[in-house]
Amino acid sequence: MSATEDPTEPSDPEIVPERTNAEAGTEVSAELRGRRSTFFRESSDMGSPLPDMPVPSGGRWSEIEADRQIRAFLIHLAGGRDLVERDDPVEFLRENDLLLLFGPEEEASFADLALRFPESTVTKWATLLSGGDRSEAFGPRSRAERRDEAGILREFQVGLRKRVFGAVLLLGLVAVVGFAARTMLISEPEDRLDRSLRFAGSSVSAADSQPTGRIDGGPPVAEPSFVAVADQVVAVLKGGGSQESRIRIDVPASDLPIRPGVLLATVFEHRGGQVALIGPEAWWAEACIRVSVVTDMLRPLDVVFHEVKEGACPDRLRGRVARVTCVGRSVLMLGVDIPQGKVELDEGGVGWAETIRFGVEAAPDAASKWEILAVRGAMTVADQAGDTGAAVPAFGGGPGDVVRVEIGATTGECTLA
After folding, report:
1. Parallel, antiparallel, or unpaired for β 228-229 and 232-237?
2. What is the mean predicted confidence (pLDDT) over 95-109?
């Protein structure tokens, strides 16, 4: 023996003694060791023997019939290997190590067979084939599947939280809107008396006044804050679709009922409200004139229209025929009802007379391309901080008197009716 040799190790590895002390519980018979040594010696080209196996059809089996079908499945799966006979299919599976033959195709075939098992058999074999985890019955989940499942669960939880948060937010919004609506309905509206059209003298409405007798006072001189000009063109073409899509801004001057910027208007008090309009000579002879008294939200309180020539106003116009108070070559004065103070509206709520709108509407013509064509303007009470606004000026006179109307630098004469 050389000095470098270790006397504790065998000199020839081929004479290492066979291990005879097997771990307790793992001893197997020589017959089983022989079968296991030849278990995977089958040809790799065999493929799965299950595609040729017929799939039974019908209803649920009893436990005895299910065991018989499982045993037949396992024998078919073994593919001609030497088998140890056992009555119990579970013992038959374990004794012959047939669980090693279960791949994806075999699991799918067995799952089709399990559709007819009784519940107890399904539970037993699902637990057996999944290694104890029934949630992985007939094939354990891959790591990717577990990761996807965890992601889906997280998304579900996040979605649930979002739904709960959205529902709470919606309920809160509904509560706020309900409270605001209740407050608006219950509380008194803002008093706009100082911003409404108010007369300097007595308040007699045009509808109730009688065009007789003389009223003391000077000539009609306009309050500058109540002077307005008709310079807004409103034009809508005939045709289908919404009116908004047919609105036009550029309109030929020859189509307009009056040139923008030439008609001035103001308001006076003389047996109620009077809207005075001054334009070119005889501008009103074939025109359709409309005047309306509205609230700050453009809710009409009184609407009147005037035409000398029958049919000058379109049929679509709504309102009452105006009473002519004073008429001249360039001046036309129409009586309107200007309510003083708060007005109870028919639809509920209150309003104040704050704006007077006026305009000349185009006469209807079958050959015209316009559905609506008008030149309009509006006068509104001043709405400035600390400004209580001006009062509507009054003038005097009686029927038959010729009065000189001053609207800024423009003047004209008319005869009181």
Report:
1. unpaired
2. 82
Structure tokens at 9: 């190790």
Binned at pLDDT 50, 70 and 90, residue 104 comes out as confident
DSSP characters for 133-152?
Answer: -GGGTTSPPPHHHHHHHHHH
Please tell me the predicted confidence (pLDDT) of residue 208.
45
Name the DSSP letter for residue 287. -
Higher pLDDT, 107 or 153: 107
| Kind of pairing between the strands at 343-344 and 350-351 | antiparallel
Beta bridge mates, 361: 288, 374
Residues 6 or more apart in contact with residue 381 via CB below 8 angstroms: 195, 196, 197, 225, 354, 355, 389
CA distance 340 to 75: 105
Residue 247 bridge partners (DSSP): 236
Place of tokens 């094939």: 139
Q: Single out the residue of 267, 286, 271 nearest to residue 221, CA to CA.
A: 267
Q: Which long-range contacts (CB under 8 A, 24 or more apart) does 44-48 make?
A: 46/79, 48/103, 48/105, 48/106
On the question of pLDDT at 154 being above 90, the answer is no
Half-sphere exposure of 24 (CA within 13 A, CB side): 0
Is the pLDDT at 247 greater than 60? The verdict is yes
Residue 223 and residue 379 in contact, taking contact as beta carbons nearer than 8 Å: no
* Coil, strand or helix at 210: coil
Question: Is the four-CA dihedral 7, 12, 14, 15 of positive or negative sign?
Answer: negative
Given pLDDT bands bounded at 50, 70 and 90, which one contains residue 389? low
Distance CA 362, CA 256 (A): 7
Give the end-to-end CA distance of the chain in Å, rounded to a whole number. 153
Q: Which amino acid is at 247?
A: I
Of 61, 50, 69, nearest in space to 116 by CA: 61
Tokens of 133: 């985890």
The two three-digit tokens of residue 352, written as one number: 């104040």
User: Could you say which DSSP state residue 38 is in?
Assistant: T
| Helix spans in 140-240 (H) | 143-186
